[in-house]
Amino acid sequence: MRMLSLCLIFVILAGCDPSGQKSRPNEPAKASDSKLPPSGSAAPVPPAAPPTVPSQAAPASGSASVEEIADQSFQVELESWGKVRFVSAKRANADGRKELLLSLKDAEGGTLYTFPQPKLVASWNFEAVKAVSFKDVDGDGKKDVIVLADYVAGKESGGSAAVTAPSIFVQKDKSFVSDDDTDNKLNASGKIKTVSDVMAFFKANEGAAQTVPDADGNATLEKVNRNLCSRVVASSMSEGEIVRTYENEYAKHELNGPEHGQDEMYRYIGECFQRETDKWLGNDSKLKTQTDAIHQTVNEAISALSGIDYVRDGGGTMWVHDGNRTIGIYGYRMNVYAKMKLNHPKSAAKKYDALVEKLDSNLAKLKEQGIKGLEELTDAGGVKEAQKEFDAKLSELENSLHKFRELTSDKDEASLYLMELLTKRVGASIDENRRDGEE
């Protein structure tokens, strides 16, 4: 008994535990395994030990903070998941860049799935979610996820205007797929402002796909475009020569279809040079981010201008086709811009500023003309609606051009090249309310 009493006293004084291990009061307690699953994967069952290694979708504790966006998080029933909570959140990374984090959670708040990061916005700085919608975009009967969010180029948001980028996540079995090609096409269209715009895009493309006569014709089109792309990127052809080369080759293979077919040809030209640009800028993330942001902003401006021409001329599909083709050819023009930037262009501030004055003058004239003359073509109600639409499109144009000037504030020869094109395009919409072409 005496020996037992001595042992108990020793335990109390020495801090022993009954297992024989020394206690370590300053050692932090082990955190429970609450880390998110790898991006684009279903949440695995947490192992008892050892703790899981943090994935890219969930940095180690202390390197990032995550804040849920309550008004863009929803209860939803998804075919492959049942009733879940879709959560939008803003994550501030240790390097200062913010990104959008999307996930599915169960009733207890546990993470079931983390959505992949779309490649289009991977290097951009997330600002805010504009809209989330659950709609079947691919016709397989499962709800897909449409997200419209605002981003700015670079890590800091103070000096740049935000642009709206669409991200589409197609539902598969226990996963969602982010299609880079679809996101790029939506973004390049410059027309995606609402979820309705996204659905209209998919509907239009579905209709276009039905015009393809058969698999052989589709294969021929792909082969012709692949060969043409290899041919033109390796040449020193001008923009006009590239277009004529495509037109001649399409005619040879009887691929020259109706107006929509011509629109598609310009889109293929743009995509060809966009891929080439991506190759060149693969090791220059800063320039790629800037180029992508300028490209989207230009497309927004062209889309607004086409809408203005459409309203001022009382309608007509020619303006729609004109917008599609101009947006398509900007894939080539942004390639020229990137090539110039890689060759360290000289400053052209004086010429750039002179063009800014010309651009402002063209905008003022366009605004002054408004929809004059349209009164002869439609009734008072139609004129009122036209004026409303004109004002909205003009506001879009002014905002886009303001963002463009911010993104090209270096005022070098590459920026001057794009500024000349835009100034000329705005000027083509004034006077007789019709474009005379850009060539």
Number of helices: 11
Specify the overall morphology: globular
Order of helices and strands: HEEEEEEEEEEHHHHHHHHHH
Major beta-sheet overview: 6 strands, antiparallel
Estimated structural class: alpha+beta
* Low-confidence segments: 1-63, 155-159, 207-217, 433-439
Strand proportion, as a percent range, falls in 15-25%
Mean pLDDT: 78
How widely separated are the two ends? 106 Å
Number of strands: 10
Oligomer: single chain
DSSP helix fraction: 40-55%
Summarize the structure.
This protein is of the alpha+beta class and 439 residues long. The protein has 11 helices and 10 strands.
Give short descriptive properties of this protein.
disordered N terminus, Integrin_alpha_N, disordered C terminus, 11 helices, 439 residues, six-stranded antiparallel beta sheet, four-stranded antiparallel beta sheet, 10 strands, alpha+beta
Structure write-up:
48% of the residues lie in helices and 16% in strands. It is α+β, with helices and mostly antiparallel strands and 439 residues long. Among the domains are: 64-179, no CATH class; 257-427, no CATH class. The strands form 2 sheets. Strands 1, 2, 3, 4, 5 and 6 form a 6-stranded antiparallel beta sheet that branches. A 4-stranded antiparallel beta sheet has the order 7-8-9-10. Helix 8 (318-342) runs antiparallel to helix 11.
Layout of secondary structure:
Blueprint: H1 2-14, E1 41-42, E2 64-68, E3 74-78, E4 82-93, E5 98-105, E6 111-114, E7 125-135, E8 144-152, E9 163-172, E10 175-178, H2 180-189, H3 195-210, H4 215-233, H5 239-252, H6 259-280, H7 285-312, H8 318-342, H9 349-369, H10 380-407, H11 413-427
Antiparallel strand pairs: 1-6, 2-4, 3-4, 4-5, 5-6, 7-8, 8-9, 9-10
Helix pairs in contact: 4-5, 4-6, 6-8, 7-8, 7-10, 8-11, 9-11
